[in-house]
Amino acid sequence: MPNSPSPEPDEPASNESQTTDLQPSMTVHPLGYSSMPMHMYPFPSGIVPTPPTRSKRRQVKNACTNCQKACKKCDDARPCLRCVKYGIAEECVDSHRKERKKGIKRGPYKKRDGKPFSLDPPYDGSTQPSIQMATAIPGASSAIPFISPVGFSPNLFGPYPKPGDPAIYYPPFYLAAPISAHGLPPHQNGDGEPGYHHPHFYPTTFLTPYPQPYAPYMMPHRPDGQVALPPAHLGFPPISARLPQGTGQQDQRDDRSEEVTPS
DNA sequence: TTTATCGGACACTCAATGAC
DNA sequence: TCATTGAGTGTCCGATAAAT
User: Fold this and answer.
1) What nucleotides of chain B have any atom within 7 angstroms of a protein Cβ?
2) pLDDT tens digits along A149-160
3) Which GO molecular function annotations are given, in alphabetical order (predicted)?
4) What's the Å distance between residue A20 CA and nucleotide B9 C1'?
5) Arithmetic mean of pLDDT, A196-202
6) How far apart are the first and last CA of chain A?
7) Measured CA to C1', what is the nucleotide nearest A108?
8) Å from A1 (CA) to C19 (C1')?
């Protein structure tokens, strides 16, 4: 049986770069996508980087004990999404990592034919990486200041950027107006209902005013039991107003809907 | 049909090693 | 001292089994 109905919306391995994954490719893809299937990537057809090279699979530094035990994808948040989904958030704790052995003798290293390799020609600034073509979407900008969700380290969304690293590109789909199943923004789809309940439009649930890899319903809870939400001045409706009713996540959305108050 | 299990491919870390 | 190598270890994909 295929895995499709699996409770884990994991990225399929088939979407990941087959190991042409020499070091340079590690920085090709923007962060946050590692937890999103490639077919959901917000690149308009024709702009999607081709051939469909898989991005390197990214791993969390430390999976929780539950995910580790289940051999399932975890995330950096505690509780992790999987534990929250399964209602075992209180059991979501970092697994213990063994200490690496020291003093192991290693044989003489062989040199790899001379020079450092590079898959890509040196970037001279005159051309844009194909992935950045997504900025061609009207109204979008790549100059989006990164805002970390309340209570979350910026590192949660990136490969631990270091000082001097180039700015991380976050695709404009985070900013684009959501399109409902009727082709209208939420609340305008003709029946007065939020337009986010069609599974074929699942990607729109990722629309969020700031870059983060979670669907809105996946927004992690803060220690006070509420969930971080974008500031109201960004003009986004409360998440509770644009999510399907009656899902397993409903309770989570409800207790944070009042978190957004116009300022 | 859904959920659980787990083998194994892949990713990551970092001490040992080698070049300068 | 710094860069490179590659073994050790962890993560999690995806196939399969079991449960419902």
Assistant:
1) 1-8, 10-19
2) 333 333 333 333
3) DNA binding; DNA-binding transcription factor activity, RNA polymerase II-specific; zinc ion binding
4) 15
5) 34
6) 50
7) B17
8) 14
